[in-house]
Amino acid sequence: MDGVIDGYFESEIFRDKPLHCVCHYDYLNENKKIFSHWHEAIEILYFKEGTTRAICNQEKLVCNPGDILFMNSYCFHSLENISS
Prior knowledge:
This protein has about 80 residues and is mostly beta strands. It is about 0% helix and about 50% strand.
């Protein structure tokens, strides 16, 4: 599968369209973290299970199953599992 790196999958869709969109599936366990990074396009995160700490430009948020988080363009963000 193109784009898979240790459980991280990112695939661009609508690359040359007016609405640039990136879709990926992430999983976090007690030893896994998505380190601080940013995107040119917005990112929409939907949380399926567990509890995650999201840091967006130094603002800390707790995300639970069913939550949706919208990341602005160029917003530095990281994710960390805080479930047991």
